[in-house]
Amino acid sequence: MAQVSAVDAVITALISTLDTALTVPVYDGLESTSAADTDFVLVGDDGAVETVGEPAATSNQDWSTFELGSRAEEGTVTCAVISQSGDDDLAARRTASKTTMAAVEAALRATENLGGVVAVGGIDTITLHQGRNANGCYVRRVFIYRYTAYQG
Questions:
Q1: Tell me: the pLDDT tens digits for 21-69?
Q2: pLDDT-based confidence at residue 1 (cuts at 50, 70, 90)
Q3: CA-CA distance, 45 to 50, in Å (whole number)?
Q4: How far is it, in rounded angstroms, from Cα 143 to Cα 63?
Q5: How many domains is the chain built from?
């Protein structure tokens, strides 16, 4: 069967790459569990529980190169680094999430092609969210992984 898009393989490769490189849990989308990790990474989800978040992924294919035997695909995968606690110390959560984000960036720079799944990829945009609620405080760094792949 012909591959429709590289996006599924990109998500799988991101999870594998980050799970191998990081010391915090890496999840395929938002976990539906009552367990609350303090620090973790989501692939294919922005971690927005209260609102409708960003799409898991997007892709756009350029068919103008198809006559050459392949088509170019540009895509993005929404991911998030989450740090949360039952206390009120936002500064500590920012520090923890920054440490995890730095490890994510290092892991993705070390394998810019995700083991051959993409031609090139990397972190495009990082957005910081933080807040407090009845359960404590949280910091959420939503990042967009942008890639180029060739389908043929």
A1: 999 999 999 876 656 789 999 999 998 876 666 789 999 988 665 555 6
A2: very low
A3: 13
A4: 28
A5: 1
Can you give the pLDDT at residue 32?
61
Residues 78 and 46: beta-carbon distance below 8 Å: yes
Please tell me the pTM assigned to this model: 0.90
pLDDT, tens digit (0-9, with 9 covering 90-100), for 98-126: 999 999 999 999 999 999 999 999 999 99
The residues with which 125 forms a beta bridge, in sequence order, are: 144
State the residue range of the domain holding 86. 7-151
Residue 2 forms part of a structural domain: no
Q: Collapse the DSSP code of 29 into the 3-class scheme (helix H, G, I; strand E, B; otherwise coil) and give the result.
A: coil
Asked whether residue 17 is assigned to any structural domain, the reply reads: yes
The Cβ-side half-sphere exposure at 70, using a 13 Å CA radius, reads 9
CA distance 139 to 141: 7
CATH value at residue 39: 3.30.2000.10
Q: How far is CA 124 from CA 75, 81, 133, in A?
A: 11, 14, 29
Establish if 112 belongs to a structural domain: yes
| Whole-angstrom distance, CA of residue 39 vs CA of residue 141 | 11
* 144 within domain boundaries: yes
Question: What single DSSP character describes residue 47?
Answer: -
